[in-house]
Design the sequence.
């Protein structure tokens, strides 16, 4: 006589096997998804670097007189704000065919506390930097703005765009990149002197950047600390 179905025990065994396999494969799928996001982000930055390069070719090798997210908000926070300088992504729009390159798939935004002229204020770019400003990526405004008082976060100075030829270290000077390093599951571990068994973890903190010479890659925290100053 043929059976017409599974017993309850057999069904439970099958369900248990599926749950175990899902538990094993989920981290693999999650890691693959993060890797895909990171690759898409680097591709975006590569195209942004190319757009800026085309802009400089049309404007006597001069970088765009533009600002990034934080620069814009700092100026707007002043008692007597100046005319707001355009964002980089607004200036190089004619050189971009796909506006989607300004959106990083891992963009979850970030928050930042600042003190300026004795006043404290907070900037919040969540749920995503793209949603708040129109771009997931920030511009290295040191390529265009000369700060006469570095202690004032670049708000005291004048616009003096550099030329490509003036950059002494094009492979170590970034043009644009992620404003935060946690978008791709990156972890900033505490310094060795502050580590305990509870918080001891592998430091995977990194940010994706595109350099003046056109290459884009992920930079660790140690590498970020050694990037070149465009005006040095």
Sequence:
């Amino acid at each position: 006589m043929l059976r017409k179905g599974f017993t309850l025990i057999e069904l439970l065994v099958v369900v248990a096997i599926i749950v175990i396999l899902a538990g094993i494969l989920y981290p693999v799928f999650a890691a693959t998804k993060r890797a895909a996001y990171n690759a898409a982000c680097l591709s975006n930055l590569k195209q942004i670097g190319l757009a800026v390069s085309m802009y400089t070719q049309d404007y006597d090798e001069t970088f765009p007189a533009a600002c990034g997210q934080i620069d814009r908000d700092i100026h707007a926070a002043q008692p007597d704000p100046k005319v707001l300088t355009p964002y980089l992504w607004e200036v190089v729009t004619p050189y971009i065919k796909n506006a989607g390159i300004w959106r990083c798939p891992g963009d979850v935004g970030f928050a930042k506390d600042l003190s300026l002229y004795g006043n404290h204020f907070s900037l919040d770019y969540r749920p995503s930097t793209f949603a708040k400003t129109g771009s997931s990526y920030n511009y290295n405004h040191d390529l265009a703005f000369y700060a006469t008082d570095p202690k004032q976060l670049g708000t005291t100075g004048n616009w003096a765009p550099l030329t490509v030829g003036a950059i002494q270290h094009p492979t170590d000077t970034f043009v644009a990149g992620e404003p935060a390093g946690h978008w791709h599951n990156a972890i900033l571990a505490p310094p060795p002197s502050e580590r305990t068994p509870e918080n001891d973890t592998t430091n995977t903190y990194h940010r994706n950047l595109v350099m003046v010479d056109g290459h884009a890659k992920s930079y660790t925290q140690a590498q970020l600390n050694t990037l070149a100053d465009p005006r040095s």
